[in-house]
Amino acid sequence: MKRLLPLLGLLACGPKPAPAPPTPTLPSDGTDHTAKPPPAPDAPAVVDAWQGHELIQQPAAKAPAAVQLPAIENFKLANGLDVFVVRDPKLPVVSMQLAIKAGRMDEPRARLGVSEAAADMLVKGTKKHDAVGLAKTIDFVGGTIGADATFEATLLSCSVLSKNVSTCMDLMPEMITQSTFPDAELAKVKDLMLGTVRQHLDDAGALASEQIQNLLWGNDHVRGWINSEQSIANLHRDDLVAWAKTWYVPNNSLLVVTGDVDAKKLKGDLERAFGTWAKGAVPPAPSYKEPGLSGSKIRLVDKPGQTQTHIRIAQFGIKHDDPRFFDTLVWNYALGGGAFSSRLMKVVRVEGGKTYGASSSFDRNLDRGSWVATTFTRNSEAVATAKLILKEIQKMAAEGPTQGEIDAAVANLAGSWGLRFQSAGDIGSALVGAELHGFGKEYLANYPLAVGKVDQASAKRAAQQILTPRDYVIVMVGDAKDLEPQLKKEGWRYEKVSAVEPVTPVEVAQQPVDPKAAAAAKPILADALAAKGGKAKLAAIKAIHETASGTTAIQDHDVPVDIDRMFVMPDKLRIDATLHLAKDVKIIETLTGGGGWMGAPNPQTFAVEISDLPAAQVASAQFEIWRDPELILLKASDAGAKVVAVADEALDGKPQSVLHMQSPFPGMDISLYIDKKTKLLTRIAYTESGQQVNDDFADYRDVNGIKVSFKRTSSSRGHATTLTLGKVEFDPKVDPALFSKPKDVK
């Protein structure tokens, strides 16, 4: 625009050339005999008045300089708690940040999510305050409290006006030493965690990020473990109590206090506030063998209906204290960390037109983390886009960044560092991170200087050593029907998994049975058995035949369905289902002990074809037999059953006694909900295939002296099957041929 405006002015007001005289011509002579007009006078040269006069001059990048930090005092309390104080009297505010050196990296696989759940529960109740009481106490002084768990630490924070600092002094030690982890609040926390897991299953980008970590690190390394509905369902209050006892000790923690404080007086106040927090033995952090990576591994995560493919390409990264850390900051900025100035953004968005963006990043932890390139694109461009990214990785590994890229990265990384410290609270947060990694306040001050020491040779050397163009993993989350032809055409070998399956197989440790909770379960079970019809009548049942009609969700549509179910004790089950689509579709599933067969329609002819029941469906059918709603109370009353009473809950406003029952199937324990008024079973809750499932029962009627629910709903992740029973028979005549595998089914 600065060049266009003066040109418009000159064209509007400058001298115009004289008009040309008429040109005489001879008929049919062509141009050879045409008189030529006299030459026009020379037009005056157009002068750009703005030449050499830029309105905005780009300033020259300044040399990196150390950040000037305020004085930071450090002392230890008698119990070993390390304290750092950053005084800032400009505002009458105080912030306290407590970091406990235990997080996701310290969790056992059988207790995935325990660090997050324990942190969330710190604000949910203590011996002095329940969750509402804690909230009211901090709200009364206009402050905030919060708790969270990261990969490496558990963080508890409290901020108030400086005149109310005693409120933080009271609440923080109380939450650490007197948390009660109430079951009712834990149920709410677990619901929120389940919501996050389900959201990630629906979010292709989040799912791709989780899948890439699992593919890179595997199922035997903590970095490869991803929460599932089942892992969260397996968490219990005792797990949180044990976690807190093990890790929540002052000699495994540090406290940063920032704001308008008197450091001399503060030490005495902290001694009094945290003095009851006793030292404890800190176990060593778990260690894991780093998996090898040779060649490429590709995982296709099938998400039908997904129109865009989310792509992740990963390799192993570096530790935060690696001598090549700052060199890696610079070359990664040039490759994918520098937003619109990075190579990946240019080649994938600007030049390739494949997507809106691409980036790369690496973990900055005490242990070696991952380096990941991230993008998404149209399904049809998935493999082509992945190839573009791989090409840029290879180029960076071979040549390193240019001097221009070095200069731009250093200027941005070093220049923006000081902008992070706008307040004492910002300094406090950064100090927590530095101290957790053993760097100290010098790291914060000298960070720009360390970035400035990176040169082209050191950045190139680091890129060559860390990037491994031949050894990498790729995850693509998209519709397999669009992606598989591309992968096969390219000759890329891959594994295919479903987007709805748990990323990490769940490992379950059997829970010890609390004698008091087991004793509390017995009268609840006795009442439920009596209301059902009595133990003797249930024990006499040898077979159950039921028919039902209703609807089931298929691809977000409710489809009418008819069910015919025959169960013969102890291990035979046949289910015939007819789906009423445009054309009726019949499905048969039959279990006979440890195996079975199934009949499913051919997609083209709709004729039912017979095949062996897959192992996963055998296990699912065996679990269905075990939890049969007519007999589950009988199983729960068995002398060897492990059943405990847990906190009461409410369903649709009606109070329920809740029993937790261990099943013989790993990771598939169940919860039984018993209506306190009717004593009838209203829900069986469990986790199957990584998804939380609720089987609800209503409309009880008498069948031969046994109460049977005629209204049944099974729901999972917003999808439901709702059935109304038609016929119920106990001990009907059974044709043995019903369970024999046929050659075909008409």
Quaternary structure annotation: single chain
Name given to the CATH architecture of the domain at 515-739: Clam
Strand order in the sheet with the most strands = 18-17-16-15-14-13-25-24-23-22-21-20-19
- CATH-defined topology of the domain at 515-739: outer membrane lipoprotein receptor (LolB), chain A
The level-1 CATH class of the domain at 515-739: Mainly Beta
Q: Helix segment count?
A: 21
Number of separate strands: 25
Going by helix content, strand content and strand pairing, the class is alpha+beta
Provide the gyration radius in Å. 35 Å
> What share of residues is helical?
25-40%
What about the largest sheet? 13 strands, antiparallel
Give the DSSP E fraction (strand runs of 2 or more residues): 25-35%
Mean pLDDT: 88
Uncertain segments of ≥5 residues (pLDDT<50)? 1-36
Shape: globular
Q: How would you name the CATH homologous superfamily of the domain at 515-739?
A: Lipoprotein localisation LolA/LolB/LppX
N-to-C CA distance: 77 Å
